[in-house]
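Tutorial, part two.
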Amino acid sequence: MASQDAVRPRAAMRPALVPAVRGPAVVLAAVGAVLWIVPAVLFAGDTGPSRLDVRVQNLVDDSPAGAWNLVRAMDWLGEPAGRVVLVLATAALCLIAGRQALAIAAVLGIVTTSVLTTALKPLVNRRIHDDFLSYPSGHVAAATAAAMVIGLLLADLLRTGRIAGTAILLAVTIIGGGLSAFAQIHLTAHYPTDTLGGFGCGLFVIPPTALVMNRLARMRAARPASE
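Running the prediction step on this input gives:
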């Protein structure tokens, strides 16, 4: 009996990316790649807004004055201290829900998203206010990545099917990324198309990160508990 207990498999962690939304999440990652690569090519080296940027900026400028508190809060979450809070809070929610693999994916994914946007800025070399590298928006990328993790968590906790899970994932991701984009545009910290690139980066990173965690969780579960 003792020898049998020694080789029993480990308890499996809940996957970071559950089957119900695995396919849609992979599609979103592909969409995210398009959303940051295409504008990066189109606006590389630019120092001014496109026509689309001007139109969207005018719409945001007409928003109610009461939006200022939301703008400041969303902007702070993208700053270094705020981003640490964002990472820890997102991971903590996953841990409280018993989703350890998704918690690790949250930390790795948001950090990787931040590294990606930082690396892309000098490569694209798009500037705003003459001197500041602007593409893509790291604020929006981090918010989008965190929102996508929360969407994956809700889809898992609610035990949804593919359609409902995809709807939840899309809604939460768009709201989180959209609010951050609104804040950056309102502050004229980024061109609207910079925020689109940031949104794409967040979409692009999280699903592959979660898939890697799925793989590692399966490998861990396959090892004997005695190891």
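The radius of gyration is 19 Å. In part three we will examine how such features are distributed along the chain.
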